[in-house]
Design a protein that fits this description.
This protein is α/β, with parallel strands linked by helices and 538 residues long. The chain has 15 helices and 28 strands. Strands 11, 12, 13, 14, 15, 19, 20, 21 and 24 form a 9-stranded mixed beta sheet that branches. An 8-stranded mixed beta sheet has the order 1-6-7-8-10-9-4-5, with helices on both faces. β14 and β15 form a beta hairpin. α10 packs antiparallel against α11. It binds adenosine-5'-triphosphate and manganese (II) ion.
C-alpha cells in the first residue's frame, strides 16, 4: 500500500500544467519530513542511522558538476551575465527541449513530490520557489535547506521560480545541447532551474544561490555573499567568507553566538539576512567533541549523504571517505541550539576571510587594511590538498573571485565594488584567517587546531586584538598580532613555525607570485590602493 500524503492545502494546478506536468493523485504536495522519510524508506532509497537521521546515497554525483551548469543565453542575460567557465551559455531552444524531456519523464513516474518554499529571510526580498522532485529525499532536502512557509503563507503562495529535479533521467547530449548526460540549466526568462542526471542535492541549493547572486545585486541593489554569519549577545554581526572546506559552517556554529546562517547571505542598506533556512555541513572527520553543534544536528529530520556505517551497524563512520570525501548532512537551522530567528542581523562589524592554506604560508590570523581586504576579496584564495594518490603531497592553489566564482553570474568586479563601498561606509574590521597548515606545508606541517582558530576569532570579535602590538608580514603586508589569548604566541607568525626558514621564504615568495599572476586580469580595473596591497614577490 502506498502511503500517500493527502494535500491538506490545495495548490494551484494551473502552475503545474503551465510547466507541462499532469496533476495526478500520485503527487505528494508539501509532505511533512516524517512522510518524506517514510517515502524514501518505502522506495528503498535510504536507511535510518542509529541517531534517527535519514542516510541516502546521491548516486553517480557526490558533488556539484560545474562543467554541466548552464545559463540560457537570451535577451535578458546576453549582456548582463559574465560568460566564463562557470557561466556556460546554452541556447533557449535546448532549455525547451530539456524541459520537455524532464516533464515527459516525470509525468510517467508513479509518484512525484512537490514543495513550496522560499529563499531570503528578509521579507522585502523573499523569493518564492516551487521544487518539483523525482525523489522524496530531494524534497526533504528542500524542506531542510530553504525557508518554510507557514499555513497562512501557503494559502496564497505564488511560485515565482521553479526547480525541477530528475536525478535518474539521463540526457542525450546531442539533442539536448549539453556536455554529457547530466545538466543543471538556469533560465532567468522562464524562472526555472532544470536539473537532470544528477542526484547531488547541492545542485538545488547552489542553483538557487546562483539566481540570487544575479537578481539581488542586479535588480535590488543588495550585495549577495558566499559566507556564513553569526551574532554576539550584544547584537554584533560577523560574516565569514571562504571557499569550500575553509570553515564557514564549522566556525559560524559557535555556542557563544547566534547562528544567522552557514553559507549564503545578502547585505542590504540596513541589515544582513540569510538566503536559506538550513545548514549543509561536511561530515568528514567529524567528532562530537570538536563540533558538538553539528554532531547533535544529526537526528530525525536530518539527511546524511554518502556516508558509510561501521560494519553491521547503522553508526556513521565519519572517517570513511570511500564514497566521497564530500560527505554531508543537511538540517533545518533550528537544529542548531542557538539559531537566530528570523535569520537577520545588523550591519557586520567584522568580516573574516577564511582560507585553508595548504602551503602553510599565510598567518593564522591577520588584520587587513581596506586595500588589502579588497585585494584578498577579489583574489579569493585557498589551497586544497591534492587527491589521495600515494606520494602526492603538493597543495593545489585555487583563486576564486569573491570567494565564490562558481556561483556568480555577474562580473566579480560588481560584487567587489559593492563590498568595497560597504566596508568604507561602515568601517568594518577585516581579518584573514588561515584555517589550513602551520609548521610547514601539507605533508610536513599540520592543520592548525580548531580550538586555536576559534580562540583567535573570539579574541577578534571581543575587541581584544584592537590595540595589541602587530607585526607587518614581510611578503603579504598584513598585520599579525603578537599575542592572542588561548593561542601559543609562537604559532602566530608562520615563519616561526617552520623548522626550515629558507624553505618558508621560498614557499611564501612562490605563493606571492601565484597571487600576482592571478591578479593580472583585474589590474586594469582596480584602484592604486588595491594594487598597492599586492604581496611582494622580490
Ligand atoms: P562549504 O562551502 O563546502 O560548505 P565550508 O567553508 O562551510 O565549506 P566547513 O564545512 O566548515 O567548510 O569545513 C571545514 C572543515 O575543516 C571541517 O571538516 C572542520 O572540521 C575542518 N577543520 C580542521 N581544522 C580546522 C580549523 N582550524 N578551522 C576550521 N575548520 C577546520
Ligand atoms: Mn559550509
Amino acid at each position: 500500500m502506498l502511503a500517500m500524503s493527502v494535500p491538506t492545502i490545495s495548490f494551484s494546478v494551473e502552475n503545474l500544467v503551465k510547466i507541462g506536468l499532469k496533476n495526478t493523485e500520485s503527487i505528494h504536495y508539501q509532505s511533512t519530513p516524517d512522510e518524506l522519510v517514510e517515502d524514501t524508506l518505502r522506495i528503498g532509497e535510504g536507511v535510518l542511522t542509529d541517531a534517527g537521521a535519514l542516510a541516502i546515497k546521491t548516486g553517480e554525483f557526490t558533488g556539484r558538476s560545474p562543467k554541466d551548469k548552464f545559463i540560457v543565453k537570451d535577451e535578458t542575460t546576453e549582456n548582463t551575465v559574465h560568460w566564463n567557465e562557470f557561466n556556460i551559455p546554452i541556447e533557449e531552444r535546448y532549455f525547451h527541449i530539456v524541459q520537455k524531456k524532464i516533464t515527459e519523464y516525470l509525468n510517467q513516474k508513479p509518484e512525484l513530490w512537490i514543495r513550496d518554499c522560499y529563499a531570503c529571510a528578509d521579507p522585502r526580498y523573499r523569493l518564492n520557489i516551487r521544487v518539483v522532485t523525482e525523489k522524496p529525499w530531494t524534497n526533504l532536502f528542500a524542506y531542510n535547506m530553504f525557508l518554510r512557509p507557514n499555513e497562512e503563507e501557503l494559502e496564497d503562495f505564488k511560485p515565482e521560480w521553479h526547480v525541477i529535479s530528475a536525478p535518474d533521467l539521463k540526457l542525450d547530449p546531442e539533442t539536448c545541447g549539453t556536455r554529457q548526460h547530466n545538466a543543471a540549466i538556469v533560465s532567468f526568462k522562464h524562472k526555472t532551474i532544470l536539473i537532470a542526471g544528477s542526484g547531488y542535492t547541492g545542485e538545488t541549493k547552489k542553483g538557487i544561490f546562483t539566481i540570487l547572486n544575479y537578481l539581488l545585486p542586479h535588480e535590488k541593489g543588495v550585495l549577495s555573499m558566499h559566507c556564513s554569519a553569526n551574532m554576539g549577545s550584544a547584537g554584533d554581526t560577523a560574516v565569514f567568507f571562504g571557499l569550500s572546506g575553509t570553515g564557514k559552517t564549522t566556525l559560524s556554529a559557535d555556542p557563544n553566538r547566534k547562528l544567522i546562517g552557514d553559507d549564503e547571505h545578502g547585505w542590504t542598506k540596513d541589515n544582513i539576512f540569510n538566503f536559506e533556512g538550513g545548514c549543509y555541513a561536511k561530515l568528514i572527520g567529524l567528532t562530537e567533541e570538536k563540533e558538538p553543534e553539528i554532531f547533535s544536528a544529526i537526528r530525525p529530520g536530518a539527511i546524511v549523504e554518502n556516508v558509510q556505517f561501521f560494519k553491521s551497524t547503522n553508526k556513521i563512520n565519519f572517517e570513511d571517505g570511500s564514497i566521497t570525501e564530500n560527505t554531508r548532512v543537511s538540517y533545518p537551522l533550528d537544529f542548531i541550539s542557538n539559531a537566530q530567528e528570523p535569520s537577520i542581523g545588523g550591519i557586520p562589524k567584522n568580516l573574516f576571510f577564511l582560507t585553508s592554506d595548504a602551503f602553510g604560508v599565510l598567518p593564522p590570523i591577520s588584520k587587513l587594511t581596506p586595500g588589502q581586504a579588497m585585494y584578498q576579496f577579489i583574489s579569493g584564495y585557498t589551497a586544497k590538498v591534492a587527491g589521495t594518490e600515494v606520494g602526492i603531497t603538493e597543495p593545489k592553489p585555487t583563486f576564486s573571485a569573491c570567494f565564490g566564482a562558481p556561483f556568480l553570474p555577474l562580473h566579480p568586479g560588481q560584487y567587489a565594488e559593492m563590498l568595497g563601498k560597504k566596508m568604507q561606509e561602515h568601517k568594518v574590521n577585516v581579518w584573514m584567517i588561515n584555517t589550513g597548515w602551520t609548521g610547514g606545508p601539507y605533508g610536513v606541517g599540520n592543520r592548525i587546531k580548531l580550538t586555536y582558530t576559534r580562540a583567535m576569532i573570539t579574541a577578534a570579535l571581543e575587541g581584544k586584538l584592537d590595540n595589541v602590538e602587530t607585526i607587518k608580514d614581510a611578503i603579504f603586508g598584513v598585520f599579525i598580532p603578537t599575542q592572542v589569548v588561548g593561542v601559543p604566541a609562537e604559532l602566530l607568525s608562520p615563519r616561526n613555525t617552520w623548522a626550515d626558514k629558507v624553505a618558508y621564504d621560498e614557499k611564501a615568495k612562490y605563493l606571492a607570485g601565484l597571487f600576482v599572476e592571478n591578479f593580472e586580469k583585474y589590474a586594469s580595473g582596480v584602484s592604486a590602493e588595491i594594487m598597492a596591497a599586492a604581496p611582494v614577490t622580490s
